[in-house]
């Protein structure tokens, strides 16, 4: 209740001028260079950022919610500790894999057929049989799975559990102890073949063969065995992931893109699950707070800017003061150089508030820096000549209320547009390459915890993190 009370209280918080700066304009060199090029000194910070930036799905989609999922997962803690004994892998890491893979449900199947990933650690039948030396009688498992489903439909709980016990004996993936043992065997073999714990975890979703191809593409020209290559080139997953882009280590990027799934971000989501389990044991108030914030919107935007601690603009007076004190920066109009243009309708409701449209055509410095980065990088990566179209930027509560009355898709309650940290980009692109470049940037910036975004019917709604302040001096300069 304390968190809810705080959220209710902040509805009245408005702008003050603590964050003022000078008038800022885009740097010329910002249009040609990647301001977020990887540096090894950033590795630990990027790991932490990725764990937070990619945690939204865990809060939004964990079966029954994060608390129920954490409770189920923790019930296997002793088995997990027994499984990792003498393996060199931490129990917290393997516990996080359980959280992410099955949500602590030992009988779950990825679909209806147990040929797919099944059990507490979601092991494929083929992997279990041919790689992990696990007992899997697939046909018997299929028959029992159908009978279990029938018993559940009839409400025969006793029969369903008896059948599940039978299935555990002929398909060890459904036996939690055996599933965990199989996962440790996989991770141990993967570490031997890849040379690092983090790469072993990445391979749990990506596959050892696929990851090996990515590593050799990232560091080509080396005939060393993979573990030696990894050691020689210091190939952490943070380095490979964040140092790979369409125009940088392009072959590795192409391989990751062709995978067509979320395996490149798997390790970050495991770290996110590990942090959730830590909070579940050590700080449940904070976990509850994060759970509420992630549930509020379709992205992590409120986790980036909680309503109970984020200043926003109540009316035109607030906005004008922000402009006067340079808290808000004007959207530049140079689409050929910056890769984005301001939609002519932006601020169209301003006359109904007796205000000029220009009052509603600005952003905080952090958000403007990110927008300049996105526009210029998307342009450079795709060679597009058509700019991205920015349809919305800052608003005040009065403008938001007007918009809400005529647009059912407008955010109800707290809108991040009223903070100056959010903008919308029209879902219209010059080409497939332009769209792909934009999508890559959205995903990369999310992994860096610099933005949260959500796909709306007509636009991509982007909220910029305060962490993007580090991008401001790289992309903007005082005029």
* Helix/strand/pairing category: alpha+beta
How confident overall, as mean pLDDT? 93
Shape: globular
**Structural Rg:** 25 Å
Output the number of helix runs: 24
Properties at a glance:
9 strands, 8% strand, 479 residues, alpha+beta
SSE blueprint and pairings:
Layout: H1 2-9, E1 24-26, H2 43-53, H3 56-61, H4 66-74, H5 77-84, H6 91-102, H7 125-130, H8 138-154, H9 157-170, H10 176-194, H11 197-206, H12 208-218, H13 226-233, H14 237-242, H15 250-259, H16 266-282, H17 284-296, H18 301-304, H19 316-324, E2 328-330, H20 335-338, E3 340-342, E4 362-364, H21 365-382, E5 388-392, H22 397-406, E6 422-426, H23 432-447, E7 451-455, E8 459-464, H24 472-475, E9 476-478
Helix pairs in contact: 2-16, 4-6, 5-10, 6-16, 8-9, 10-11, 11-12, 12-15, 16-17, 21-23
Explain this structure to me?
- With 479 residues, the chain is an alpha+beta fold.
- It has a domain at 2-38 and 300-478.
- The chain is 52% helix and 8% strand.
- It has helices spanning 2-9, 43-53, 56-61, 66-74, 77-84, 91-102, 125-130, 138-154, 157-170, 176-194, 197-206, 208-218, 226-233, 237-242, 250-259, 266-282, 284-296, 301-304, 316-324, 335-338, 365-382, 397-406, 432-447, 472-475; strands at 24-26, 328-330, 340-342, 362-364, 388-392, 422-426, 451-455, 459-464, 476-478.
- A five-stranded mixed sheet has the order 3-5-6-8-7. A two-stranded antiparallel ribbon has the order 1-9. Strands 2-4 form a two-stranded antiparallel sheet.
- The chain is globular and about 75 Å long.
